[in-house]
TrEMBL record:
Organism: Panicum virgatum
The protein's name: Polycomb protein VEFS-Box domain-containing protein
BP GO annotations: chromatin organization
PANTHER family cross-referenced by the UniProt entry: POLYCOMB GROUP PROTEIN, POLYCOMB PROTEIN SUZ12
Domain of life, source organism: Eukaryota
Domain DUF7651: 52-254
Pfam families attached to this UniProt entry: DUF7651, VEFS-Box, Zn_SUZ12
Signal peptide location: none
One GO MF term attached to the UniProt entry: chromatin DNA binding
GO cellular component: nucleus
Domain Polycomb protein VEFS-Box residues, every copy: 461-581
UniProt keyword annotations, A-Z: Chromatin regulator, Metal-binding, Transcription, Transcription regulation, Zinc, Zinc-finger
Length: 599
């Protein structure tokens, strides 16, 4: 409902302001509609896997309780112990004189009528699917089987009983003559569909007549939790009927009783319209959209606990709250339940959808914006004081064997600019004091700082002169002057060595043609030399590559075809636009026209 009495007292300017206030809902709703359309083909999660939907489906299942009343079964004698099983046939193929093979998972035991004895021994409780699921072909095959062996004096093993549930191993004693009957859940579902108060959380009591037929329980299937009955091995006479009391209610009926909305009384509602009233009330939620400083509101009603923005059924009022708070956080929601209705008050969050203010004529795509991501944990930098905090002084006599060993084991030397230099390896021709240290076979590289000539200690300088250093990329020996110079050789790049390593890496591919390997090598070498580092460099790089290698590309059709396929792949990944691709093709066409002219 709208607050019409307040709207009537508003001036025209205030009414216009109120309409603008309500129009603020449009942008968030439009955004959620776009997200919902995109999620149709690529959903972020499966709706049926949500916990609140699983719980809602479980609460819709039907709990049935089976018992026998002594007042309606006065003629039945020696029917206890009575086993009650929830079964499903394994196949529709049956042999003559045999029942279908039924598979069961749980067995309940009844030892007396409901008027006598403990409740655990007089009732059997099972959970079956909801009425909608029972109408399917697989669920309608469920059957409740009753087996009575009391007439031949079977003894119940109390050690294999837990309450009224019986372990499957104890059923092996049932082999032989017995009487059995069956209740089909499809017939039970048809009876429950007529009870309109079942969905309102009330209990429905039914009475079903079951014909108990004498038969022979085959023992060979009991070990696999299966059973079948043979009628050829016993006398067909001696059948009798049992009046079975069946009590049914929804599994979540107790939770429904806790809600004020479910305590609504239908006593004054005529029976002719009672089903329609219950259907309309079940799952109905009222949404009140607040606007104009929460002084006015507009109302919308959804069914089946559906979201008003994306129309997703949430199964329950609790599930609707989880969905709204997690998927539509641009709004503020207030949930309240009364005996008359379930309602949600909706209002816009402050500054949740503020308009960006840009100067006139400024393209927002060129506007600088701030971005702050959640920083990952970084390793704490160790200061120079902390490095040497746990270092203890140790005196070494000059010229000793320990002195030579320390000089050869000094793998990393400090340098001013912080870049790494190659580890020192011992030259065999410069072994110190007869040391038998062998030179390392593999060159190792690491981060280090090199001491300048002015800061280096004469002793350290003497030790460095005894070691052989190598360039980090070229792996060539370094002269002593290069070691002590301030020139940084760590970031040097030898193009020949880099091209060699790139070719060697590409040769490892066996499912790539020779021309494709050549094109990949040409592109890798080009982007390395031109320092193509970002996605925004790709359009320029493609044009420059076409100009640089155009003559070579037009002379090799396979190479030219691979280059055009590569540009198409860049275009598919939104790294290259159509205009740049056209410019590259014009450049290549120019080379083709120039090459074909002299011919």
């Amino acid at each position: 409902m709208c607050l019409q009495h307040l709207r009537a007292r508003l001036s025209p300017d205030e009414q216009l302001a109120a309409e603008k206030s309500f129009a603020l809902y449009c942008k968030p709703v439009e955004l959620y509609n776009i997200i919902q359309r995109r999620a149709v083909k690529n959903p972020a999660f499966i709706q049926r896997s949500l916990l609140y939907k699983i719980q809602a489906r479980r609460k819709k299942r039907i709990q049935i309780t089976i018992s026998l009343s002594g007042s309606t079964n006065t003629h039945a004698q020696n029917i206890f112990p009575l086993y009650v099983l929830l079964t499903r046939p394994t196949s529709n193929i049956t042999l003559e004189g045999h029942s279908p093979i039924y598979r069961f998972s749980r067995v309940c035991l009844l030892t007396s009528f409901s008027e006598f004895g403990n409740k655990d021994k007089t009732e059997a409780t099972f959970i079956i699917p909801d009425l909608k699921t029972l109408s399917t072909s697989r669920a309608c095959n469920l059957s409740i089987i009753l087996i009575s062996c009391g007439q031949i004096g079977q003894i119940v093993d109390e050690d294999n009983c837990s309450g009224n549930y019986v372990e499957g191993s104890s059923l092996q004693k049932l082999e032989g003559k017995c009487s059995w009957g069956k209740i089909g859940t499809n017939l039970l579902a048809s009876s429950l569909e007529k009870c309109v108060t079942l969905s309102a959380g009330e209990t429905v009591d039914l009475v079903s007549t079951v014909t108990m037929s004498p038969s022979f329980l085959e023992p060979k299937f009991l070990e696999d939790n299966c059973l079948t009955f043979c009628s050829h091995k016993v006398d067909a006479t001696g059948s009798y009927q049992l009046k079975v009391c069946i009590s049914a209610e929804e599994a979540g009926a107790r939770d429904l009783s806790l809600s004020p909305y479910s305590n609504y009384s239908y006593n004054d509602v005529p029976l002719s319209i009672l089903p329609e009233i219950i259907r309309l009330r079940a799952g109905n939620v009222i949404f009140n959209y607040k606007y104009y400083n929460n002084t006015m509101q507009k109302t919308e009603v959804t069914e089946d606990f559906s979201c008003p923005f994306c129309l997703v059924p949430c199964g329950s009022f609790k599930g609707l709250g989880c969905h709204l708070n997690s998927s539509h956080d641009l709004f503020h929601f207030e949930f309240w339940v009364s005996e008359e209705c379930q309602a949600v008050n909706v209002s816009l969050k402050a500054n949740a959808w503020k308009t960006e203010l840009l100067a006139e004529g400024v393209d927002p795509r060129h506007q600088t914006f701030s971005y702050r991501s959640r920083l990952k944990k970084r390793r704490r930098l160790v200061t120079k004081d902390e490095k040497f905090r746990h270092v203890h002084s140790h005196c070494i006599e000059p010229g000793s064997h320990e002195d030579a060993h320390a000089g050869s084991e000094d793998d990393y030397v400090q340098r001013e600019n912080g870049l790494s230099v190659a580890d020192a390896s011992v030259d065999p021709s410069h072994t110190v004091h007869g040391s038998n240290l062998s030179p390392p076979t593999v060159l190792q590289f690491g981060k280090s700082r090199k001491l300048s000539v002015e800061q280096s200690d004469p002793r350290n300088r003497q030790l460095l002169q005894k070691c052989q250093f190598f360039h980090s990329h070229r792996a060539q020996p370094m002269a002593t002057e290069q070691v002590f110079s301030d020139h940084d050789s760590e970031d040097e790049v030898d193009d020949d060595i880099a091209d060699f390593e790139d070719r060697r890496m590409l040769d490892d591919f066996v499912d790539v043609t020779k021309d494709e390997k050549l094109l990949m090598h040409m592109w890798n070498s080009f982007v390395r030399k031109q320092r193509v580092l970002a996605d925004g460099h790709i359009p320029w790089a493609c044009e420059a590559f076409s100009r640089c290698h155009g003559q070579q590309l037009v002379q090799n059709p396979a190479l030219l075809r691979g280059w055009r396929f590569f540009m198409i792949k860049l275009w598919n990944h939104s790294l290259l636009d159509a205009r740049t691709m056209n410019a590259c093709n014009i450049i290549l066409q120019g080379y083709q026209d120039g090459s074909s002219g002299p011919k």
